[in-house]
Every structure is written in C-alpha cells, then in structure tokens.
C-alpha cells in the first residue's frame, strides 16, 4: 500500500489538479483501495482533495487531487556563475516563497553561507513543513554529492554542507536537471529521446531517454561543452583545448571581436547578441557563434539519434538572433538521411527556470517514498 501511495503522490506532483479517478487509474488501484489511500493521505496532510466541477456525466462524482495547504514542502536551490536562488515548492510544483541574491564572492564558503542562510530562513517561515532540499549547480555532481564548477572555481565541494541535517538532500548538474524537467513538463514532454543544450558560462546539456536522463558512470555525463568541436588553439579553463563551449559563449564573441571578455561574459554576450545590427562586426561575430552552435548540435544529433533538441540560456538568444545561420550549419552537419526530417531545434519552455524546476522535481521524487 505504501508503494501505491507514493506512486499516487508522484502522479499528483506531475499533474496537479488531476482527478482522483484518473490518478488511481494511472497507478492501477481499484475504487475501494483508492478511497482508502486518498483518505489516509488527506488525513496526514500529504494530499489535498476538493470536489471536481460538475461534468454532466453519469456516475459518482470524482474529486481533484493537489497539494495540501498545510502539506510538506521541498526547497529547490539553483547556483549559477553569478547568482543563486532558493524556492519553497509544494507538491505539484507550486512556488510558495523564494529568496535570491548575487554572489558577493564566488568562493564555495561565501556562496555556501548565502544559500544556507536563505534555506534556513525559508525553513523557519514554514516551521516543520520543509522536508528536503534539491540543488542545481553548473558542473558535475558525484553520487556522494560532491561538485566541481569551473565557472565558479570550485573543486570537490561538499554540497551536503548547504543543510547538513536535511532529511533528504539531492543535487545535480543544472543542465541535466533542466533537461529532465523539459522532458516531463516542458517543450520535450512528448519526445522519446531529448537532447538538451544550455549555454551560459560554458555549455552543458543532457540526453533524456524515455524520461530518464543519462548520468554516466560517475554522474558527469552531459559535459558537451568540453567536446573538441572548437578551435584547438583555444585553451579551456577545464584544462583541455578546443572545447566546444569556448566557441559558443561570450568569450567566443569577445575573441572574434578582438576584445577581452568581461568577468560576467554571459551578460556581455546577451547584450551583444541583442544589440548587434546587420553589417556590423558584432553581427558577424554573432552569426559565427550561432553557426558553431549549429554544427556541434548536428554532430550530437548524428550520434545520439534525438527526436528533438531543446535550447536554453544563450542558445535561445542565438536561435532568435541568427536562425538562418544556426539552422544552415545544423542542417549541413547532419547526415544526409536526417536532413529530410531533421529533429527540430526549439527553445526550452521552462526558460531560465529549468534547473530550479528540475531540482524541485528531483527532491520531490526522492521525498515521496519517505512520506507514504
């Protein structure tokens, strides 16, 4: 019974407002068992139940299932190259409150202190209701919840220190979590194999195969920005040379223009892409970087056999600003038989919220089995 109760909570998280009849059908419970399980979950404040609007059909009226107004919550934290945010999230993904800020310093101790303080403030606001923490970071995360983040200068930091006493603490790469969220509730919800690419302070991504992100042997899969699709003469902060990420980010734009990239080269790239006018050197640089993104994407599609590609971060800016150049390079790089019906390149529906939504989803997925 506990397994079915957890499964039912999982369905409600994925589809808040689902009818009890539909939720129990998905889980595979009979009417009597469903009534018993739902009643227990409502009594324990794990689930909310309200009457469904009249449907006009015959039979016993059903109810709608969603978060209980006094139910458990998770915290979802996202750390980027320049800022952080923490959300309190109920079952179903509703955001009840949030804290955010910019890094005073990018050292692990400084960022850890800021995020931990925000998480503690939210826990105090919802005394006793916060049961888990999910964290998205811009780099690989091991099974032991230790992370590297080149853009922040982090090496082997212990993410458990964000909330040492957390009943449940999960963490993952930001692009991987965003990819999973896009496949569940975003632009790739109907796809079988998804390639997600996120360009920020570097390029990351993930492959989601029938709803499951491929994490790799050590949890470091999806570091597509470190594939050697770039200029071999350009060194990457990761220690390699010719990384694809160095050909598609703000440093690439600055290099093409003979400039020094500022510290926040993501904001720099966004301003330059949006302000580039036709015929200008800036426009030429934008088109060159867009083409580099298209070529590399084609190589991944050839190897992975994705049926859709979702783009996030600066990838969306480049797609909007130079769709012809990006698309032409993408199609030219595809194997001939794929050009007849190339997998579409689409903006991520969750936009900048992808990683934090994914962190909340992962936290809830781990929490529900402990609740029911």
UniProtKB/TrEMBL annotation:
<keyword id="KW-0418">Kinase</keyword>
<comment type="similarity">
    <text>Belongs to the ROK (NagC/XylR) family.</text>
</comment>
<keyword id="KW-0808">Transferase</keyword>
<dbReference type="InterPro" id="IPR043129">
    <property type="entry name" value="ATPase_NBD"/>
</dbReference>
<dbReference type="InterPro" id="IPR000600">
    <property type="entry name" value="ROK"/>
</dbReference>
<dbReference type="InterPro" id="IPR036388">
    <property type="entry name" value="WH-like_DNA-bd_sf"/>
</dbReference>
<dbReference type="Pfam" id="PF00480">
    <property type="entry name" value="ROK"/>
</dbReference>
<dbReference type="GO" id="GO:0016301">
    <property type="term" value="F:kinase activity"/>
</dbReference>
<protein>
    <submittedName>
        <fullName>Sugar kinase of the NBD/HSP70 family, may contain an N-terminal HTH domain</fullName>
    </submittedName>
</protein>
<dbReference type="InterPro" id="IPR049874">
    <property type="entry name" value="ROK_cs"/>
</dbReference>
């Amino acid at each position: 019974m506990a397994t079915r109760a957890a499964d039912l909570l999982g369905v409600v998280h994925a589809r808040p407002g689902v009818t009890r009849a539909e939720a129990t059908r998905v889980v595979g419970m009979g009417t009597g068992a469903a009534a018993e399980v739902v009643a227990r979950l409502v009594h324990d404040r794990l689930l909310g139940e309200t009457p469904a609007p009249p449907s006009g059909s015959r039979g016993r009226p059903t109810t709608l299932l969603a978060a209980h107004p006094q139910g458990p919550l998770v915290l979802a934290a996202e750390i980027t190259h320049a800022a952080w945010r923490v959300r309190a999230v109920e079952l179903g993904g509703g955001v009840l409150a949030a804290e955010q800020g910019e890094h005073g310093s990018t050292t692990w101790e400084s960022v850890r202190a800021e995020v931990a303080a925000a998480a503690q403030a939210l826990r105090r606001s919802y005394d006793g209701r916060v049961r888990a923490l999910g964290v998205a970071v811009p780099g690989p995360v091991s099974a032991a919840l230790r992370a590297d983040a080149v853009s922040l200068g982090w090496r082997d930091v212990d993410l458990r220190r964000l909330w040492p006493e957390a009943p449940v603490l999960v963490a993952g790469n930001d692009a991987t979590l965003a990819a999973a969220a896009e496949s569940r509730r975003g632009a790739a919800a109907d796809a079988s194999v998804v390639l997600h690419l996120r360009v920020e302070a570097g390029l990351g991504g993930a492959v989601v195969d029938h709803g499951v992100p491929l994490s790799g042997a050590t949890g470091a899969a999806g570091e597509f920005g470190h594939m050697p699709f770039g200029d071999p003469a350009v060194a990457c902060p990761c220690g390699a040379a010719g990384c694809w990420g160095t050909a598609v980010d703000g440093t690439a734009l600055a290099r093409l223009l003979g400039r020094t990239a500022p510290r926040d080269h993501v904001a720099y790239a966004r301003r330059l892409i949006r302000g580039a006018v036709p015929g200008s050197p800036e426009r030429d640089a934008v088109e060159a970087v867009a083409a580099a993104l298209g070529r590399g994407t084609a190589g991944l599609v050839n190897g992975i056999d994705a049926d859709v590609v979702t783009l996030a971060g600066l990838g969306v800016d480049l797609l909007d600003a130079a769709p012809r150049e990006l698309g032409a390079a993408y199609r030219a790089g595809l194997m001939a038989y794929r050009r007849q019906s190339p997998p579409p390149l689409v903006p991520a529906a969750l936009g900048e919220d992808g990683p934090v939504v994914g962190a909340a989803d992962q936290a809830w997925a781990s929490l529900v089995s402990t609740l029911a």
